User: Fold this.
Amino acid sequence: MGKDQVFRTEIEKASDFKFGANVAKVFDDMVNRSVPFYGEIQRMMAELAADHAQVGTDVYDLGCSTGTTLIGMDTLVDPNIRFVGIDDSQEMLDKCKSKLMEIGFSRNYDLRCADLGEGVQITNASVVVLCLTLQFVRPIYREKLLRDIYQGLVPGGALILVEKILAEDSRYNRDFIRYYYDYKRRNEYSEMEISQKREALENVLVPYKLSENITLLRDQGFAHCEVFFKWYNFAGLIAVKK
Assistant:
């Protein structure tokens, strides 16, 4: 696993963050050092997916990146269920495919390159995962994406959503961000790396409040929404279709 040094040196003018080749090479290190309890979140998603996946349907991972979630779910989900991974970065999908081949991934699976903001075709799904993905979809397209997911789920199907979020009371946002940057410092990110990545993400990652995400889900028809993970400005939700 390559070490994340994408923002280690000073950048004269930071451009918008992109999941290109330089990020794909170090993404696993980046996300492990940048997302609190990332390994535990992956384990929890795999458990939830296993409980809701139905034989004869597919399990989708939207924004599958390098395949960590697919690999985690593979250990618990019925082996006869097909996995579908979708990402808008071909470099990420290439890294995902090489990881799956390296571990001898034997499950039936399909990897597709598609921009979720332009709509995605989901059919016969019992589980759809959006792990730190919806936050990168432009807000004007999120409602349609969630509607497509809802319509593509079978009855009893589940959406597993993990997002960076805003505090319900804006007074806490500054504190939560400070705690988060302290976490990154503990994981050996420098002040320059933290600052430059924040600038690169500013127009790309647009978080909502937890309550706003729940409202979005309910507006699309999801009957049950439950929080399964919360750490300051990160949260995990499961929503089930009737």
The chain is about 40% helix and 20% strand. The chain has a mean pLDDT of 92. The radius of gyration is 17 Å.
